[in-house]
Amino acid sequence: MTPKIAQFLRDHAPATPCLVLDVDRVEANYRRLKAALPLARVYYAVKANPAAPILERLTGLGSSFDAASWEEIEACLAAGARPEAISYGNTIKKASAIKAAHEAGVTLFAFDSEPELLKIAKNAPGARVYCRILVENKGAEWPLSRKFGCELEMARDLMVQARTLGLDPYGISFHVGSQQTSTAAYEGAIARVAMLFTDLKEAGVKLRMVNLGGGYPVRYRAEVPGIDDFGNAIMGAMTQHFGNDLPEMLVEPGRFMVGDAGVVSAEVVLVSRKGKDDPVRWVYLDIGRFGGLAETEGEAIKYAFRTPHDGTADGPVTIAGPTCDSTDTLYEKSNYRLPMALTDGDRVELLSTGAYVTSYASQSFNGFRPLAEHYI
Ligand SMILES: Cc1ncc(COP(=O)(O)O)c(C=O)c1O
């Protein structure tokens, strides 16, 4: 929690549940990433948190943007981003959205299949395209599975086809999975990209760009490697495989840029037990899976909690949200402990919740309003 957020919570005690996000911390994270990877251009993954104050601050800093939809492109443009600074990075796009992006001046598009490539050729003629390849997601706490990317051989053929379709075969992208805790994941992925660069050069297609994706982690309950460790591993692998002929490098950080800039302030609604002697208390909060904590699914992302009783005796808990849905249980198996003194009405903070929370919140499941947001 940044001092600015702590001060805001003290001074305003805003109604819960709400997210309070320190935009200065986003700027600091952007600068830290630039320092760790000075040769890479930063495309902020808007999906992590699309709030206008974040997009405006990043635009002012010269950041570029990775957009997942036409609506995110509109948000970037409204924040003052130039269309040339926007990458339409989703490999699943409606033809109408590709057309709208092209007409707005966006020139960079991702794909991972032939039908998508044909759609881009038709609706964004002459665009720069990059193909997303499948890579290992081992080490990621929020893996992206096989939904995105294609095999190397297919990527090779599609990049050759891109040229014949009148597109500009610009580069290759990958994503090693979100909250990636292993620097080796990037090294392995870069080795695969390098093989593709060589194959395509032999086929007469000279690629110019590697999109290293997102994945850079945030500290939740456990330590993670620092951004410098990722920078060193990435630059080591790039130099090993490309030597002096380094291609342009893009990074698409989402979680790293905004995660630790935000705190969710919530209220304890109920503390109860299932039996008189049950050692485990159930702690129900006024925010849960449907209030924005979607990444607690499978207890994948383990947020750290702060309570007014920290430092006093604690005991095991199951933590759940307020709705009448049994999947709205956040942590049952992850050995969470909270103070014995915790009671209904207490305010608690969920730390490092600036990424992938507000945008996941449902409209009004069980009648609850979406999470309030304060950008300071
Ligand atoms: C194409 C793309 N780029 C970047 C990101 C951001 O990833 P992260 O938040 O792990 O940095 C995602 C996340 O899903 C993505 O799909």
UniProtKB/TrEMBL annotation:
UniProt-listed Enzyme Commission number(s): 4.1.1.17
EC class: lyase
A Pfam family reported for this protein in Swiss-Prot or TrEMBL: Orn_Arg_deC_N
GO cellular component, as recorded: cytoplasm
PROSITE patterns: ODR_DC_2_1, ODR_DC_2_2
Keyword Magnesium: no
The organism's place on the tree of life at top rank: Bacteria
Protein's GO biological process: putrescine biosynthetic process from arginine, via ornithine
Domain annotation Orn/DAP/Arg decarboxylase 2 N-terminal: ranges: 24-258
One GO MF term: ornithine decarboxylase activity
UniProt pathway annotation: Amine and polyamine biosynthesis; putrescine biosynthesis via L-ornithine pathway; putrescine from L-ornithine: step 1/1
Keyword tags: Lyase, Pyridoxal phosphate
Active site: C324
N6-(pyridoxal phosphate)lysine sites (modified residues): K47
Catalytic activity: L-ornithine + H(+) = putrescine + CO2
Cofactors: pyridoxal 5'-phosphate
Family: Belongs to the Orn/Lys/Arg decarboxylase class-II family.
Protein name: ornithine decarboxylase
